Amino acid sequence: MTLGVFKCELSQQSLISGLPDDIALFCLARVPRKYHTLLKCVSKRWRDVVCSEEWHSYRQKHKLDETWIYALCRDKLDRLCCYVLDPNSSRKSWKLVHGLPPRVLKRKGMGFEVLGNKVYLLGGCDWCEDATGEVYCYVASLNAWSEASPLSTARCYFACEVLDGKIYSIGGLGSNSSDPHSWDIYDPCTDSWKFHSDPNIVPEIEDSVVMEGKIYICCGTSAVTSHVYAVVYEPSSGTWQHADADMVAGWRGPAVVIDGTLYVLDQSSGTRLMMWQKESREWIPVGRLSSLLTRPPCQLVAIGKKFYVVGKGLSTVMFDVENAGNMEGVMVSSSIPKLNSDDDVISCKCLSI
Question: Which residue from 22, 237, 292, 298 lies 20 to 30 Å from 215 (Cα-Cα)?
């Protein structure tokens, strides 16, 4: 091999000619996420790096990762669709995520969750199909969907949460052979689901959140008390217990947790944000959102200390918990223009790369 050919091959092996790969990664990882698609077009080596777990981990470790919002919606033709929003973009507009698996388009009651740099669509059913355990995965860095390891039991209209780096699929309705008092745990290290059961889990799931290292499930009306109630998962014991009744009493809408505090969007009369005060054991009104900006039914999602209220047609209102002003009870916020549609928003999740 001549010296010239050797230098050429060496140059092709390097991320950036003349630089060690660790220095090249130091430089490339600081490129904003919105330009990652362009980076992947430079060469196969760059594409492989941008799509790798190493890239994802490096950006997280050095606090370079950027969080985008993914919304699962249903359009006027009753088909599922998925959109993504870069909240830091100057244009601030929702964009359609293409390539949703055709088999899921008509399904209802699907789980929607994010783990690492992947979005998961789980289970579901439709009018001519019983509940399924199928799982589909969207790798954000590749912008591609694929089939993933199926749930250990078929489910629809169930709760989905991530705790300690694992996905929990809880309760819901299933096939005739499914146990409604059960949950599945997905371990990405083994790429497998593990089945568990507990009589305190009920099929009727309203909402769920992770708070203080525990999963809280807001359930439907109890046949015994005729009141809405909740159960909480204790990871240390692997069991479910009944949650604080005072907290559950005000859980009337989509919820998120910021800095260990539970916030709920009450849409029973207008759009009002409520906060659970654990010390005083009472719900405190934070403020109302302008009816001119919100289009219920809405979903809540949080990035840092900012709330995003996403309603019909992906109308989006953002406000900062710390800096949001209050003018005669109406919270001062900024809005993102809605799409020219009346799509219903089913769920919103955040994904960081």
Answer: 298
